[in-house]
Amino acid sequence: MDETTPHEATPLAAAADEAVTPPAESSPQAPEAATAGNKRKIVLIAVLSALLLVAIGVAGAVFFISNHYAEHAKPGVTVAGVDVSGQSRSEIAAMVTELTDEITVPLSYEGTKVPATLKDLGVSVDVDATVDAALAAGGEASLVDQYSAEAVKPVDLVLEDDSEALQDWLNETFVPGKSESADASVVYDPDAARYTAKPGQKRMWIEPAPVAAVIDGLAERPSIENTIILTAKSEDPKILDDAALTAANDANHRLDIGISVTNGAGDYFTVSDEQVISWASITPKPDEGVIAVTYDTAKIVAELPSLIADELSVSPIKEIRLTLNGQPFATEQNGSNGLRVTGSEAAAQQVADALTGGNDATISVTTESIPFTTEITPIAGGGGERWIEVSLGAHTLTAFEGETVVLGPLAIVDGGSGTPTDPGVFTIEYKLEKQTMRGEDYETENVPWVMYYNLADEEAIHGAYWRTSFGYSDSHGCVNVPVDQAKFLYDWAPVGAKVVVH
User: Fold this and answer.
1) How many helices, marked H, and strands, marked E, lie in the chain?
2) What is the average per-residue pLDDT within 111-123?
3) Is domain 254-323+334-375 given the CATH code 3.30.420.40 in the classification?
């Protein structure tokens, strides 16, 4: 210390100095001075002890309060507007759970009203995080404010929201089945045998923004008084109904047109609806907003040639000429030339062009003729075969065994001008001893000894008891003979015997 500086002693220092300075022997007041010094020391010690006790008490109180509020909410703490002062962790957690379980948000869309829970809206409450925030509230304030009930310490709910879950729930609740758009399409209805247009569907969704705004406010104040009026938005599909209808009409037009191929001889191959459908492709083109109807030309050209050839080729019919005693007698079967299809590939391409263009068409396929062959054979086959000859020109019937006449020629009555007897080579198909014959203008009972040889036209050889003369044309197509001769023929000619009418 600077020696020039005056020394100003503190009371404690003065007391100390007095305690260590011995009294002067020459001073007559030494006993009184000693007594006064001791009193001051006692007072000082008492003051210091009191101060120490106060400090210890204050420190203990601070420690107790801090320790208590480490697991309890401080005075003035509120959670979502609810006072939780002094509540423990478990008590706050229970309150938060109960509070949030009771929260509903009233929603309305076009008259449909639904009270939505937080779970419905994709919102979950983090109870632990909310409790942690409540216990920590006020920790940064002054020591007085931390534990003052007058200093309000608001805490919001800790919410976690899922915007995708919110949108899904809103859509499923208020516009179910419409959250995905569907393009208009074309389908084939087998029952109606027509293509039909299937309408598309707009995509609709509920606008979530008003609900999301309410959710944001629930953390601070979980009370909703007013109903939220919802609105929907929509988006057209890429392929509209008109485009599908146009495509369906286009496809049905191809079913309605007629496309056929002919060989020029009266035979036709007609393209069927089933074939047209099998060649068709219905292709949606969303980027263009249309449905394309196309036909597989390569498939048509690959499939049709063999079908056309099979349908329009004609096999030649062999001509069979019968002889009697080496001389021409009758033609059992007339011959005709056949046809071989030679241009089926070209015809198939024409079919494809007509179908693609949507045009009716009758296409002539090129062919070449196949000559028929002729077979000449004895009428009796060289043996004793039984057969019958009917001569329409002579109005006679003759029975043969091989080339030998066993009966006749007999005079007969054959078919009249309106119902002539058919010429040809036939065989007896079945026999009846007696039959009632009926037609449009007649009914004859008990016709005897009937032998049918031309069932297609119901022609038979039979007895005619109602006739008194023969040798002319007057029947309904059958060969009428006298009853006794009919009986002979019935017994003599077996089923399968040949009948030559010429």
Assistant:
1) 12, 33
2) 94
3) no
